[in-house]
Amino acid sequence: MRLTKRLTIFPLMLAALLGGCGPQQGAHTVTASDPWIHPPTVEDKKAVNLPPFLVYRVHPDMLKEAVAELAKEPYVQISPAIAARYTKTDAHVPMEMRPFLIRGLTGGQTDITVVQSMQGLWVKATGSDVAHPVQQPLVVMVDPTPIDIFVTLEPKG
Q1: Cβ(102)–Cβ(38) under 8 Å?
Q2: Which residues are 121's β-sheet partners?
Q3: Residue 94 phi/psi, 5° resolution?
Q4: What are the residues whose beta carbons fall under 8 Å from the beta carbon of 96, sequence distance 6 or more?
Q5: Which of 85, 71, 95, 96 is nearest to 139 (CA)?
Q6: Which of 6, 42, 129, 148 is deepest in the core (most CB within 10 A)?
Q7: Beta bridge partners of 141
C-alpha cells in the first residue's frame, strides 16, 4: 500500500478505535484530533531509522513534566543533564549530536521507531492496544535540528 493512501486511512482508523475508550489512570489520553498525531505527507526514500541507543522513552515519573514542556511545540532542544533527568538514565549524547525532547505515542505493548528524514523525525509506534493511545514523549540524540515531528500509531501486524 502506498504511504499516502495508508496515511489517509490512519486518522480514520484511529478515530474508530478511540470511540468509547476511557482514559488510563494517570495517562494523557490522545484523541483522533490531538495535535500529537501528525502523519507525514510524503515518503522520503533516503530516510533512516535511528539506532536504539539514540532514542529514549521519558521515564513514567517524568511524563507530566515532559508533556507540559511539549504542549505548544512538537520538540524542544534540551541539555544532556535534562535528557538524563527525563529518562532517569545516563543518556549518552554523542559529541556531534544534541538531545531533543519530542512528541510520541504509545498504546499497550508498543514498539517505537524514530525515522530521520529531510522533512524531520517520524515517530512510528506499533502496538497491540492502539485503542488506548497515550502521549509518550521521547528523548532523541540527533543532528541537525529537526524541521518537524511526525507521529503515528498503528496496530501490530
Answers
A1: no
A2: 116, 149
A3: -55, 145
A4: 143
A5: 85
A6: 129
A7: 99
Please report, to the nearest 10 degrees, the dihedral formed by the alpha carbons of residues 76, 121, 130, 5 taken in order. Answer: 140
Residue type at 152 in one-letter notation:
T
C-alpha angle 110/108/119, rounded to 5°?
Answer: 40
pLDDT in tens, the chain (157 residues): 444 444 433 443 433 333 333 333 345 788 777 889 999 988 899 999 999 999 999 999 999 999 999 999 999 999 999 999 999 999 889 999 999 999 999 987 889 999 999 999 999 999 877 778 899 999 999 999 999 999 999 988 7
DSSP one-letter string for the chain? --HHHHHHHHHHHHHHHHTTPPPPTT--B--TT-TT-B--SS--TT-EEPPGGGEEEPPGGGHHHHHHHTSS-SEEE--HHHHHHHHTS-----TT-EEEEE--EE-SSEEEEEEE-SS-EEEEEEES-TTS-EE--EEEEESS--S-EEEEEEE--
pTM for the whole structure: 0.82
